[in-house]
Each structure stands twice: as structure tokens, then as C-alpha cells.
């Protein structure tokens, strides 16, 4: 088996095609899906290959989410496309009050195999209502799983695992990374289990805990840090819930220093949760305060210079890493 | 955040001090643990290390009397903060007179507990603490390289690398942590620091030799008895001080100090008496002891002892001695080799008075005896000169009437 270079979009489509071929209960539901294979072309080949299993809906996220929950409850394995993750607010009751709690409230008598596909993230000059990173909201909702892949292979492996999971999964895929290519294993059985982080770069001086687009900031920062003699370890969390805290702990026990990097804004972000757990469970392994690198606490501006100013940059990661390394 | 420079409490009885000098100019960058100012208390002169790093903004001019806990200056993180501090707190130059007025204000402002950087709390990262704990390393002995002097993991690892005395015994299986744990952690400051430096300087600079002899204490005991019956008791130390002072007059070379390449023989004879009131060693001086009667010496010793017990001995009373008496007789010590109190050049140690069998004139009789041990700086005092002085002291002790 060898790796091929695929874009994140192609990796997603491949995962969907493989899974839909394997299990005919899987179908896709969302706005504007069939005419252009999704507004980002992310479902390329699927409308032709699986006519009737990729469905266009009215412009109502409440309706889409509700259909997804109902279909999942009644034995189907739906994937709902939220178009922009920002629109998830219109499906909040369906997702947080229904999907997240139904298995619990029915005493485990039902399954809810629903994947909520949420293209998220900034950098496309799409302004405040089309640029957010909202994963922390769902991490805060017991009953939901939250997946935020970074590289193409992660998109494929995690999507397959999400589809196969019997619980509702919020799947956040960054819009700006759709065209980014990465090696993807040529193996139809390639699945990345939920709750498994990956150490994607080994280092002894500082752990960079990240996910989604933050991973690429960390890669850039690690290269710069290496030139300065600081060896950064990059841990791509991949799944925020369930969280692979064992991998986090193993890394911190090696480096004694942590920087958490995400594109979502700072306050109440996932970094706060992770920092809290690190200090509580790994106190004796901390040689410096845990620092966070995140977007500023403002709506994402439409102005390109302002948007760039608000988003975290690799230089911010470098500065934070230097700081905890006392350089 | 600006770092406060607050006056530390250097001793139990310390309430105030004089800020003698700032060791850095206003606006100058001071690093942590650099000497930032000099304090003079009634007991010691203290060179205060900086609690942190920053640009100095002094509030109080040199010569001011300041209260314990009073904030006397700040360390600004940068020039902007320095400017803000200058605006909020008038600087030393602008506040030339608050020396007197500053005291009551400071008493209400200053927090009662240890102000500024608490000296007992070592700043260390959790990882550094965990490793230090596992290896039985005392963090107070490790210097921190992290922000604000924080001890980080690397500092403890470096400390572990340094050779340790116990490393020579590889057979010992027990962890050092269980063999050596700290019961009490005492900073070497204040009076202890003064003693520490003095004792070290004593043996490091002088070539000290001790001569021992023994004198009859019969006359001494009789003198004490008579005085007691007469309602004017004297202490042993008063007699020893007088004996020393009178002997020094005959042997002035023992009443001397080395200054540079000269031996300074002093005209005045100021005999210090080592005292311990439980808070460390103090050596108040009996001034012009050679010109004082036994009763005057007794009065002076009594006054100094009371002042010492009350913690009121002044720096003046404890400086500029020319010879020291140290008496361990009350503790049942037979004899010992005292260490000279520099810049003096000689010290007399006195042991306990004990009845002994003495052979004299073909017969053995029982007599009270006292051991006298003279330590002196052999660089400037030859053996014969030292022995002659000790012989004179011994004779005066054996026959106090000779001093009259």
C-alpha cells in the first residue's frame, strides 16, 4: 500500500464513496449538493455515483438538522452538510437538545449515527458570519463527539470513523484547507479511530497541542523554532471529544512545557479546557505556565488586513514557545 | 507590574533602619540579587539584594529613617512604567524631607506580614519542585534562571549534576531524600550573617595560635564572697575584664589591629565581652576598661547585659573593640580555643572554676583553679609576647589585689 497525494476535499469524497459503497444506509443531506457536488465541490463524483443518496434541501438548517436526527433515530446513517459551520446556530436545538441527549434520555435503547459536517474557519475574507471556529460550543455539550481534522489523511480516516460511530459527531473541516494536498494511504480499510491524537513531529523542548488549521501554524513555527535550537513536538489532537489525554500527557512528560494553538478565539476556547486539565493532572510536569495561541476575541473582520491581524500566526506560536522555553 | 522594594525585617527587634545608600542610580537597570541598597540597623549593616530586575525608582533619599515593611522604591519593567511611577510617586530627589514625616505614614501603609518578595518562598516551577523532591535537593540552594528568578527544571538538573559529598558512597542504597531532610531552613542574614562573615574572616586572615594556662581561683572566690557580703557583688567577668585591661596596659602589642601593611597599636583599651541572649552572639564593649574601677566595670557589664536582653544594644556599643573576653565557665567547659574577633588581634577564653589537687612545696592540697586560654594573631604577636601577657593576666586573676 502506498500513499497518494490528495486534497482534503478529495480525501473527504473518497471516504464518503468508500463508506456509501460499504453501507447503503448512508446518505447526504444539505443545500445545493447535487448541481455542483457541494458548494466547495467537496462531494465530487457522489451525485453521479449515488443518485438519490445525496439530497438537496430547502434553506433551513433547522429542517436539515431535524431530518438528520430523525433519520438516524429510525435506522439510517445520515451525513448532514451545514454549508458553513456558522449556520449551526439555526440547528442548535436539534443538535444540542435532541441529538446530544436522546440516547441518554431513552436509556440507550436507540442509536444516533449522525455526522454533522461543518466547514469552518477564517481566512477566506468571508466576514464575521462565515468565518467562525465553533468547536468549543459542542465540546461543552455532553453527548456529542467533536472531530477537527487537519491533514487530508486525517479527513479521510476520521470521516470514516465518524460515519461508523453510533453517536452524533460534529465534524469541523477548515474551508481554507480543502485544496491543501497531503499523502493519503491507498487502503480502503484506513480508519483513524476517534479519540486518538497523533504526534506529528517529535521534539524535546516544548509541546504544541493543536488541531485543525492550528496544525499548519505549528508546523511553520516548529521549523522556525528548530533554527533557533528549540525542538518543538507537535501533537495533533484530531478529536477534541473524546480527548486523547494520554498522548497529551506522554508529550508533556517529555517536554515539560505546553503551548496550545487553535484558530478559535481565546476566551472559553478549547485551549482553556486543555490548559485546565494539564495543570490539574500534570502539575508536577510543568516547567512553565501553559500558554495559548488563538484568535483575538472579536468577530472576524471583513477587511483583509484586519482579518489577518485577528487570526493567530505562526510568529505568535514561535513567540509563545520561546517564552515557555525561557529564551 | 513594578516590583516593590520594601525594607526587610532583619531581626526580631528590628522596627526601623537607616537607608545608608542606594547602590544604583535612579533609572539604572538593576538585576535580581544585585545589591540595590544598604541598610543600617542598630545591629548590622545589611546590603540588600534586589527582589527582581528592573529600572530603579528610589522613593527615599539616603540617610532616611525607614520602617520595616516600608516601600522605599520600585523596579520598573520598562521606561514607560518608570515614567508612570515617577508621576505617581515623587522620587527621592523631590522628596528630600519625608525622612521624619515618612515614618507614621509608612506604618499604616505597610502590610504587617513580610512585604515584597517573601524571603521564605522559593519561586520554582512545579516540575522543578517535583524533581527536587524526588532527589532530595533543597531548592533554596539552587539559583533560578527562569523569568523573575524562577527555578526551572534545568536549574535543578544542573544542581544534580554538581558533585555531592554522598556521591562517593555508591554502596548506600537509601535515597538521599530519606537520609537528609530539612528540619529548619535558616537564612544567613542579619546578625547571623555578621557573625558568619566575622568568624570566616578571622580564620581566613590571621595566623592564630592558642596558649593555655591555669590560675588559682581561690583569691577570686574570696573577692567575690567579700564583695557579696559588702552588698556590692561583682561578676567573674568584671574581674577578668579588669585583669585583661590592666595586663594590656603592660603588654600594649596585644591591643592592636592590622591595617594594610601596618600594625596599629591602640591607645584606648576597649574590652568586648561575648554574650548570647539566645538570638546570636553579641560582643558589647567595656570602654576604657583600663581606667575603670572593678565597680565601674561591673556596673557597665550589668547595663550592657540588660540592654542585650532587651534587644537594645546599639551598633556603637558593639563596634570598635580592641580585645575580647569569652567565658564558657558557666556551661561547664574546662578550656577551649577561642577565635579572635577581627579586627582585634587577641581574645581570652575562660573555662570553669574547678577544685583540683595541686602539688606544691612537697605536699598536695585541693585548690580552686580556672583555665585561661589566649588566642592571638601570630603574625604580629610573637609567642613570648603572648605568653608574657597571659602570665600577667594569670597573676592578676590569682591575686586580684595586684591590680589595685
Structure description:
The complex is a heterodimer of chains A (327) and B (404). Chain A has 327 residues and is of the alpha/beta class. Chain A contains 11 helices and 14 strands. Chain A has helices at residues 8-22, 46-49, 61-73, 92-105, 135-139, 152-164, 214-227, 245-255, 270-281, 304-310, 314-324; strands spanning 3-7, 26-30, 54-56, 77-81, 115-120, 145-147, 169-174, 181-185, 198-201, 206-210, 232-236, 239-241, 258-265, 291-295. In chain A, the strands form 3 sheets. Chain A has a 7-stranded mixed β-sheet, with helices on both faces. A 5-stranded mixed β-sheet of chain A has the order 9-11-10-13-14, with helices on both faces. In chain A, strand 4 (77-81), helix 4 (92-105) and strand 5 (115-120) form a beta-alpha-beta unit. In chain A, helix 1 (8-22) packs parallel to helix 6, helix 3 (61-73) packs parallel to helix 4 and helix 7 (214-227) crosses helix 11 (314-324). With 404 residues, chain B is an alpha+beta fold. Chain B has 3 domains: 3-109, OB fold (Dihydrolipoamide Acetyltransferase, E2P) (Beta Barrel); 126-179, E3-binding domain (Dihydrolipoamide Transferase); 190-403, Chloramphenicol Acetyltransferase, CATH 3.30.559.10. Chains A and B meet through loops of A and helix 3 of B.
Describe the SSE topology.
The complex is a heterodimer of chains A (327) and B (404).
Chain A: E1 3-7, H1 8-22, E2 26-30, H2 46-49, E3 54-56, H3 61-73, E4 77-81, H4 92-105, E5 115-120, H5 135-139, E6 145-147, H6 152-164, E7 169-174, E8 181-185, E9 198-201, E10 206-210, H7 214-227, E11 232-236, E12 239-241, H8 245-255, E13 258-265, H9 270-281, E14 291-295, H10 304-310, H11 314-324
Parallel strand pairs in A: 2-3, 2-4, 4-5, 5-7, 6-7, 10-11, 10-13, 13-14
Antiparallel strand pairs in A: 1-8, 6-12, 9-11
Chain B: E1 3-6, E2 16-22, E3 29-30, E4 35-40, E5 45-49, E6 54-58, E7 65-67, E8 71-76, H1 79-88, H2 98-109, H3 126-135, H4 153-161, H5 176-179, H6 190-205, E9 208-216, H7 218-229, H8 236-250, E10 256-259, E11 262-265, E12 271-273, E13 275-276, E14 281-282, E15 285-286, H9 294-309, H10 315-318, E16 323-327, E17 346-360, E18 363-377, H11 383-398
Parallel strand pairs in B: 12-16, 16-17
Antiparallel strand pairs in B: 1-8, 2-4, 2-7, 3-6, 4-5, 6-8, 9-18, 10-11, 12-15, 13-14, 17-18
Helix pairs in contact in B: 3-4, 8-9, 8-11
Amino acid at each position: 500500500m502506498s500513499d497518494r497525494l490528495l486534497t482534503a476535499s478529495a480525501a473527504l469524497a473518497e471516504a464518503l464513496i468508500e463508506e456509501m459503497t460499504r453501507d447503503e444506509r448512508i446518505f447526504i443531506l444539505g443545500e445545493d449538493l447535487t448541481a455542483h457536488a457541494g458548494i466547495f465541490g467537496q462531494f465530487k463524483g457522489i451525485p453521479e455515483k449515488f443518485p438519490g443518496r445525496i439530497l438537496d434541501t430547502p434553506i433551513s438548517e433547522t429542517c436539515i438538522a431535524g431530518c438528520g436526527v430523525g433519520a438516524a433515530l429510525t435506522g439510517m446513517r445520515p451525513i448532514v452538510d451545514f454549508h458553513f459551520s456558522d449556520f449551526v446556530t439555526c440547528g442548535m436545538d436539534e443538535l444540542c437538545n435532541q441529538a446530544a441527549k436522546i440516547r441518554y434520555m431513552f436509556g440507550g435503547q436507540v442509536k444516533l449515527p449522525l455526522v454533522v459536517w461543518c466547514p469552518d474557519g477564517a481566512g477566506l475574507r468571508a466576514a464575521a458570519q462565515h468565518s467562525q471556529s465553533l468547536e468549543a460550543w459542542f465540546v461543552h455539550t455532553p453527548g456529542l463527539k467533536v472531530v477537527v481534522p487537519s491533514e487530508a489523511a486525517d479527513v479521510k480516516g476520521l470521516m470514516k470513523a465518524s460515519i461508523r460511530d453510533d453517536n452524533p459527531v460534529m465534524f469541523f473541516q477548515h474551508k481554507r484547507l480543502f485544496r491543501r494536498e497531503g499523502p493519503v494511504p491507498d487502503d480502503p480499510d484506513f480508519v483513524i479511530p476517534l479519540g486518538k491524537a497523533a504526534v506529528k513531529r517529535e521534539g524535546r523542548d516544548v509541546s504544541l497541542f493543536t488541531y485543525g488549521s492550528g496544525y499548519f501554524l505549528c508546523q511553520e513555527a516548529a521549523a522556525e523554532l528548530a533554527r533557533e535550537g528549540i525542538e518543538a513536538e507537535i501533537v495533533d489532537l484530531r478529536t477534541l471529544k473524546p480527548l486523547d489525554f494520554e498522548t497529551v500527557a506522554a508529550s508533556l512528560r517529555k517536554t515539560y512545557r505546553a503551548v496550545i494553538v487553535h484558530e478559535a478565539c481565546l476566551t472559553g476556547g478549547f485551549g482553556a479546557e486543555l490548559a485546565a486539565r494539564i495543570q490539574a493532572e500534570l502539575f508536577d510536569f510543568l516547567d512553565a505556565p501553559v500558554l495559548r495561541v488563538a484568535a483575538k476575541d472579536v468577530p472576524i473582520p471583513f477587511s483583509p488586513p484586519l482579518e489577518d491581524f485577528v487570526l493567530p500566526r505562526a510568529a505568535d506560536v514561535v513567540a509563545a514557545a520561546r517564552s515557555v522555553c525561557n529564551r | 507590574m513594578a516590583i516593590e522594594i520594601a525594607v526587610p525585617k532583619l531581626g526580631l527587634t528590628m522596627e526601623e533602619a537607616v537607608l545608608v545608600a542606594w547602590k544604583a542610580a535612579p533609572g539604572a537597570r538593576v538585576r535580581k540579587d544585585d545589591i540595590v541598597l544598604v541598610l543600617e540597623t542598630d545591629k548590622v549593616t545589611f546590603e540588600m539584594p534586589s527582589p527582581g530586575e528592573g529600572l530603579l525608582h528610589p522613593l527615599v533619599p539616603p540617610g532616611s529613617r525607614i520602617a520595616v515593611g516600608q516601600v522605599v522604591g520600585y523596579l520598573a519593567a520598562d521606561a514607560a512604567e518608570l515614567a508612570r511611577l515617577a508621576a505617581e510617586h515623587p522620587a527621592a530627589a523631590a522628596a528630600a524631607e519625608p525622612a521624619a514625616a515618612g515614618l507614621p505614614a509608612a506604618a499604616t501603609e505597610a502590610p504587617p506580614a513580610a512585604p515584597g518578595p517573601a524571603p521564605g518562598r522559593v519561586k520554582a516551577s512545579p516540575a522543578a519542585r517535583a524533581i527536587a523532591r524526588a532527589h532530595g535537593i533543597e531548592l533554596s540552594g539552587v539559583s533560578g534562571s527562569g523569568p523573575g528568578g524562577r527555578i526551572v527544571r534545568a536549574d535543578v538538573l544542573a544542581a544534580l549534576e554538581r558533585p555531592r559529598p554522598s556521591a562517593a558512597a555508591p554502596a548506600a542504597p537509601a535515597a538521599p531524600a530519606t537520609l537528609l531532610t530539612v528540619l529548619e531552613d535558616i537564612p544567613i542574614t542579619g546578625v547571623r550573617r555578621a557573625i558568619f562573615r566575622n568568624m570566616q574572616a578571622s580564620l581566613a586572615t590571621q595566623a592564630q595560635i592558642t596558649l593555655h594556662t591555669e590560675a588559682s581561683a581561690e583569691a577570686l572566690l574570696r573577692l567575690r564572697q567579700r564583695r557579696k557580703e559588702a552588698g556590692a557583688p561583682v561578676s567573674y567577668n568584671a574581674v577578668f575584664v579588669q585583669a585583661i585591661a590592666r595586663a594590656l596596659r603592660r603588654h600594649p602589642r596585644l591591643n592592636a589591629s592590622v591595617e594594610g601593611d601596618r600594625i596599629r597599636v591602640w591607645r584606648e583599651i576597649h574590652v568586648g565581652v561575648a554574650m548570647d541572649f539566645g538570638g546570636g552572639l553579641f560582643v558589647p564593649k567595656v570602654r576604657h576598661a583600663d581606667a575603670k574601677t572593678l565597680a565601674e566595670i561591673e556596673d557597665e557589664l550589668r547595663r550592657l547585659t540588660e540592654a542585650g536582653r532587651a534587644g537594645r544594644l546599639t551598633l556603637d556599643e558593639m563596634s570598635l573593640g580592641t580585645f575580647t573576653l569569652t567565658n564558657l565557665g558557666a556551661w561547664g567547659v574546662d578550656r577551649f580555643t577561642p577565635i579572635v574577633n577581627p579586627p582585634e588581634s587577641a581574645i581570652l577564653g575562660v573555662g570553669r572554676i574547678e577544685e583540683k589537687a595541686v602539688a606544691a612545696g612537697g605536699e598536695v592540697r585541693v585548690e580552686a583553679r580556672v583555665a585561661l586560654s589566649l588566642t592571638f594573631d601570630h603574625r604580629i604577636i610573637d609567642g613570648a609576647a603572648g605568653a608574657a601577657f597571659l602570665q600577667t593576666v594569670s597573676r592578676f586573676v590569682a591575686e586580684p589585689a595586684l591590680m589595685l
